[in-house]
Amino acid sequence: MEHTEEAKLHNPDTTMDSLSAALEAVLFASGEPISSSRLAQATESEESVVLVALEQLSQVYQLQHRGICIKRLGENWQMCTNSIYADVIQRAMETKKMTPLSSAAMEVLTIIAYNQPVSKSFVEHIRGVDSSSVVNTLVEKELLVEDGRLEVPGHPIAYVTTSHFLRCFGLSSLDDLPPLPVSAASLPQQPIEATDETV
What we know:
By secondary structure, this protein is an alpha+beta fold. It has nine helices and five strands; from the N terminus they run H-H-E-H-H-E-E-H-H-H-H-E-E-H. It has two domains: 2-92, Winged helix-like DNA-binding domain superfamily/Winged helix DNA-binding domain (Arc Repressor Mutant, subunit A, Orthogonal Bundle), CATH 1.10.10.10; 103-176, Arc Repressor Mutant, subunit A.
């Protein structure tokens, strides 16, 4: 046992390789986004070390042009299929292509993405039309989620985007959103565009 521990100390790559393999196994088994803190707890490792291992694992998949990839989604990480093989996957699984978002849904999603957390009334104020059904549809598609209530009169429900939103639009975090050409209080003129993984 002492020899094993000593070998690890003299060969740190062995420990990192084992950690990467463990993280890969957890991400594969989960199928859902998992926070780096939770991964650190599961592997009994420092979160900073886990983040390094995840970044390296992600780069390995990218450099090898694999059919799957490791993506950072805000504070979470997930194993996903490579979007360039979306058509192949669709044919193999014999599933129908999901209906693209309507222009109204894209407007609502863009407004919330750039101004979150916001209420339905905020969205309706910008669009000038009732947007309840559109917001509800986006919640059903797991692109939006209720996030408590706003500290304003009436305490309306606050809506924010989800990690699924980030994955669908090929973003690692909200910081990756393209800059707005106009004030964030106005309706964006250049709505975000979805990748092949989307909705």
